């Protein structure tokens, strides 16, 4: 009997406490002030300008530009809109309003590594596959690029989505100049045999040499230069080659100051030897 009375007493106390707490709590659309009084909340996009009194309701005002509140509230200040920083790999997806924050998304070539409320806070660049690798899975706004190695006999510069097989020069009727690697294709070309190169160059060199020798012999055996009608070249004929004869006479003219030098004989014994310096003796 005593235990039943004790249990009844305990239940009564708990019920009274819950009733008291419930009676002191504000309604769902109200907020509690410091003095414990409840006031109606402001709608999203607005903030409290003046708390309610016994005679007046809460005075609300809209949030200023670049600020917002996205829920019913009893706040004095609005929140600052999030800035999508390109330095963090972000751009604006949905612009900020008085009742909603900015929603950011990754820039092209980036993927999000930290999300919040459907938006991205921080993004990072997609990795670039190295030469010798191909793009197995292309990067998205929320996933990085996935690379894989090329197999033997194929190549990729790192940007391909599938490795390409090396060119087969023999099938193209060409000679392989440089073998392919994992990062580059084989190089093909028309390779000229060394024997063919020698067969072309050697006869050409011999022909040029023979032509030079023949030309030299013709100049050497050429008839001496005649200058019988020129008073500055008084020697009708000389015993030396024409080229040397002309040089000898030119030296005579320079020595004589371009005056006739009738008394000087270029067909002296020394000149017969072809030594021009003796033309002045």
Overview of this structure, please?
With 281 residues, this protein is an alpha+beta fold. It folds into 3 domains: 26-80, Tumor Necrosis Factor Receptor, subunit A, domain 2 (Ribbon), CATH 2.10.50; 86-171 and 178-187, Tumor Necrosis Factor Receptor, subunit A, domain 2 (Ribbon); 220-281, no CATH class. It has helices at residues 2-24, 194-220, 242-256, 269-272, and strands spanning 30-32, 38-40, 46-50, 59-62, 67-68, 79-80, 90-94, 103-106, 110-116, 119-125, 133-137, 146-149, 154-155, 164-165, 175-178, 187-189. The protein is rod-shaped and about 130 Å long. Disulfide bonds join 39-52, 42-60, 63-78.
Q: SSE layout and pairings?
A:
Blueprint: H1 2-24, E1 30-32, E2 38-40, E3 46-50, E4 59-62, E5 67-68, E6 79-80, E7 90-94, E8 103-106, E9 110-116, E10 119-125, E11 133-137, E12 146-149, E13 154-155, E14 164-165, E15 175-178, E16 187-189, H2 194-220, H3 242-256, H4 269-272
Antiparallel strand pairs: 1-2, 3-4, 5-6, 7-8, 9-10, 11-12, 13-14, 15-16
InterPro entries: Fas_rcpt, TNFR/NGFR_Cys_rich_reg
Subcellular location: Membrane
Organism: Pygocentrus nattereri
> What is the chain-wise order of helices and strands?
HEEEEEEEEEEEEEEEEHHH
N-C termini distance: 168 Å
Helix content percent band: 10-25%
The CATH homology group name of the largest domain: Tumor Necrosis Factor Receptor, subunit A, domain 2
Biggest sheet, strands in spatial order?
1-2
Oligomeric nature of the chains? single chain
Mean pLDDT value: 78
For the record, the CATH architecture of the largest domain stands as Ribbon
Total number of helices: 4
Number of domains: 3
Share of β-strand residues = 15-25%
The biggest beta sheet is recorded as: 2 strands, antiparallel
In the CATH scheme, the class of the largest domain would be Mainly Beta
- The rounded Rg comes to 54 Å
Estimated structural class: alpha+beta
Number of strands: 16
Task: Give the overall form.
Answer: rod-shaped
GO cellular component, one term: external side of plasma membrane
Protein name: TNFR-Cys domain-containing protein
Transmembrane segments: 192-217
Domain TNFR-Cys: 25-60, 62-104
